[in-house]
Amino acid sequence: MRRSGGKETSQAGEQGMGERLNPEEILRGLHTGWMGHRLETREETESTNDDCIALARAGAPAGTVVVTNWQSAGRGRRGRSWVAPPGSAILLSAVLRPAFPPGAVGRVGMAAALAVVDLLARARGLSARVKYPNDVLIAGKKVAGVLPEAYVAGGRLEWVVIGIGINLRREAVPPGLEAQATSMEEHAPLPERDGMIRSLLECLERRVEQANEDPGVLAAAWRACDTVLGQHVSLQAGLERFNGLAVDIDQDARLRLRLTDGSVRWLTPSEVTFRTSLSS
Predict the structure, then answer these.
(1) Short-list 125, 146, 123, CA closest to 222
(2) Every domain range in the chain assigned CATH 3.30.930.10
(3) What global pTM score does this model have?
(4) pLDDT digit string (tens) for 165-180?
């Protein structure tokens, strides 16, 4: 463990895995109050979310971040794998200890996805949009995803780990998925990766603080760039399948769906799996 400007850094697994992460460079000029002040960089790990879950259970403070060059067992929603060649993506997770109740944990996913939107605009002026509940799109294709995982005890939200994966280079897009996924490199020259991670941590802190203190503003920002609202969609929630119009997303990230019979259902991010977008 090393200190850089009052912030703790550690580096593990120094084997060559493409472009190396430089924790000192990530922290150089970092303008956050708490996000990233404990930073662990790993050339290889199974899953940054699993790493942060272990740290959260051990009492790691909010803002603890693990970033890796490559993960062998990265995952997205519903246990889907998230694998990218070494050095081709930003792969990180952060420990959060939010003040809101368990029912509002969906705010964390909103905050993280919007932080990626902010980053892409800040870094290269790219106009990205979000797709409920956890995808970030450029030109209609997925460039990033987020995965919140929470622990509740005694009715209290103890911690949330938020994982973020951003495709930087073309090789981060799996073969055969070019029609659905994209990379930042396909839309703009790539900035230096350590600097992008630093900027992402700044964007993430701002959005997480909104989730805690002003969730209405967070929800308004989401609505402004969401691709699902106003669409007729078909989705799965548990064992039930629904067809309807996506009407609204509230400050706790619940989706309001107006069904074809005129009734209304509110669904949480953890319940929703989209099958198709029917029409606008």
Answers:
(1) 146
(2) 2-225
(3) 0.90
(4) 999 999 999 888 999 9
Enumerate the CATH 2.30.30.100 domain ranges in the chain, comma separated: 232-279
Provide the CATH number for the domain formed by 2-225 in this structure.
3.30.930.10
Task: State which amino acid sits at residue 15.
Answer: Q
The angle formed by the CA atoms of residues 163, 12 and 111, to the nearest 5 degrees, is: 15
Tally the residues of the chain: 280
Alpha-carbon 58 to chain mean position: 23
Q: How far apart are CA 178 and CA 165, in angstroms?
A: 17
DSSP assignment of 40-76 equals EEES-BS-HHHHHHHHHHTTPPTTEEEEES-BSS-B-
Contact call for residues 87 and 70 (beta carbons, < 8 A): yes
User: What stretches in the chain show pLDDT beneath 70?
Assistant: 1-18, 74-82, 275-280
Q: Could you give the 3-state DSSP secondary structure of residue 237? A: strand
SS3 (DSSP) at 263: coil
CA distance 63 to 38: 7
Q: And the tokens for 78?
A: 């519903």
